Amino acid sequence: MDPKSTRTLGKSGVTVTVLGCGGGPLGDMYTLLDNDEAIATVETAYELRITLFDTSPFYGHGLSEQRFGGALRDKPRDSSCSRPRSGATSRHRAPSSHSTERNDSAVIPPHVQNLGWFCG
């Protein structure tokens, strides 16, 4: 297997590398990581042209997402993809200040706020 080979992610049309960067350890699941070391890990994966980053709000109560966001927030949005594991979709938008009705699809979930970006 060529780790830099790509595949389409489900029916999204988004192309990602076969090899991804998993976020469990970045949420301090197994050992406490220095924040700079964790961010450097993600930055190194990005520099190696890994484009699939897998995280969850359950990895360190959002810590993994915050670290991914810190490393990838300023990168071009079409150059990488994060797939949070919470059943979220990319159809999130800011709630309207004129809305009197709660619409769950209009709320920006915490994992999107932690990451600072999201792909479908």
Task: Summarize this structure as a short list of keywords or feature phrases.
alpha/beta, TIM Barrel, two-stranded antiparallel ribbon, 5 strands, 24% helix, globular
Tell me what you see in this structure.
The protein is of the alpha/beta class and 120 residues long. It has one domain (6-92, 106-115): Alpha-Beta Barrel (TIM Barrel). It contains three helices and five strands; from the N terminus they run βββαβαβα. The strands form two sheets. It has a three-stranded parallel beta sheet with strand order 3-4-5. The chain has a two-stranded antiparallel ribbon with strand order 1-2. Strand 3, helix 1 (35-47) and strand 4 form a beta-alpha-beta unit. Helix 1 (35-47) packs across helix 2. The longest helix has 13 residues, at 35-47. The two termini are 25 Å apart. Mean pLDDT is 75; it is low at 87-108.
List the domain count as a whole number: 1
Rounded mean pLDDT score? 75
* CATH class group: Alpha Beta
Distance between the termini: 25 Å
CATH architecture: Alpha-Beta Barrel
- SS-based class: alpha/beta
Question: What is the number of E strands?
Answer: 5
Helix content: 10-25%
Radius of gyration using CA atoms only: 15 Å
The CATH topology label is TIM Barrel
Strand content: 5-15%
Task: Sketch the major β-sheet.
Answer: 3 strands, parallel
| Full CATH superfamily name | NADP-dependent oxidoreductase domain
Provide the fold topology:
Layout: E1 6-8, E2 15-17, E3 20-22, H1 35-47, E4 52-55, H2 63-72, E5 81-84, H3 110-115
Parallel strand pairs: 3-4, 4-5
Antiparallel strand pairs: 1-2
Helix pairs in contact: 1-2
